[in-house]
Amino acid sequence: MAEKITGKCFLVGAGPGDLGLLTLRAKECIQEAEVIVYDYLCNPEMLRWAAEKAELIFAGKRAGAHTLTQDEINALLVEKTRDGKQVVRLKGGDPFLFGRGGEEAQALAAAGLPFVIVPGVSSAIAGPAYAGIPVTHRSTNSHVTFFTGHEDPEKIESAIDFAALAKLGGTQVMLMGVERIGAIAREMMASGMRKDLPVALIRWATTGRQETLTGSLENIAERVAAKGFAAPALAVFGEVVNLRDELNWFEDRPLSGKRIVVTRTRTQAAVLTGQLRGLGADVIELPTIRIEPPTDLRAFAELVQDAHAYDWIVFTSPNGVNAFFELFYKLYDDAREIGAARIAAIGPATAKRVRDFHLHVDLQPEEFVAESLVRAFRKEGDIENLRILIPRAEKARDLLPRELSALGAIVDEGFAYRTVPETRDDTGARRRLLEEGADLITFTSSSTVENFMALGLPWPAKMQVASIGPVTSRTARDLGLEVSVEARRQDIPGLVEAIRKFFSRR
Fold this sequence. Notes:
This protein has helices at about 25-30, 70-80, 100-110, 125-130, 160-170, 180-190, 220-225, 245, 270-280, 295-305, 320-330, 350-355, 370-380, 400-405, 430-435, 445-455, 470-480, 490-505, and strands at about 10-15, 35-40, 55-60, 60, 65, 85-90, 115-120, 145-150, 170-175, 200-205, 210-215, 235, 260, 280-285, 290, 310-315, 340-345, 385-395, 410-420, 440-445, 465, 485.
């Protein structure tokens, strides 16, 4: 009789929201998972690390709206683990700090199933830090207390001893319960805490959506109501809140408070997203295209196989470089098989990708467009009867092969890949755009514009357009869009700099 395979469940802290605060162990668990059960407060972008075949289950719980009850989540974890699967339960922050991870671990233990706890960075620490509030400070206090403002509704009495909190002093951090801040503040004052005790509320901590509201115990509820300040949020009570005026570093960056949409492919979005977030933007990654193999892969492979027969190989994008060398190293195990072919590249990102394969770029135009490369070839001298291979996307502009052919070159187009509309929306980016809107949407190619417009999404009020260059801008205008930002240097750093300048002028 075959031995039954038993799975294992990993209760993983997904951190407070900033992907950079996710632990390496947590990322490894996501990559290896067969089933992922994730919460509302987990940054959904971490799901892009999951395997293509992984089963993704949303078990989100917001105040007053539960996709699954806790009992149902416990049963689900037991069922999937018992089926022999490697299950990852992603929980915002740390699984054992007000995360009900203890209950889930108990359910697995009662079922006799193996489990692993992977701690995470809690918003209780990270949130105040990102708001410029140290929870302890040598000259102010030497201890911190954590409590939850959202207790089990079936309890007859609160387990929070406000009198003890008042006597203890120091810094107190409350997770959840912002919707009850008025009642909690009254309980604190009734228990002896002074009315002018500094208070800070931090919502969507460590993300581009972070907002901080400060006040005193006496007026914080009034300020919450006036601002419409809502969950998810945590509260910090204590003198350390006053240090925020001096130490606020996260919410005072050039793009803080700006929501920007990135439409690049999932695999390419990281660089643009990272640079925008580094300047404080709240980024919604909404890929409109994805890269797939060409329609006729065999035809492209035959051209790659004969690469050594060409005088020049011209790369117009990092995608073309990736597609070419992926095939090249399936056919050959020695880079010298590329022969004497010289290499031209449009744009620094394309040139860098070539250099990643330890090859030299012989020709790179100053401007990052096909027209500039044609001018560069003219300066090179006579190219008549030279053989040129251009690995490129299907349906790309034909300007480059046409102009090089007009100069007398023998040009072969190698269709290395194709861009197709991205249909998946695992991260809920489209819903976020519809519900929250955006200040700016970025387009890095004509295909990103065309495919975004093809989605037919309602255009958010006041959302403006940023384009990587004139070709992309022309496509946007042809589709009825007004371009507010156009990069003078047609690459990602150029686009980011143009966006930064645009908002600084405003």
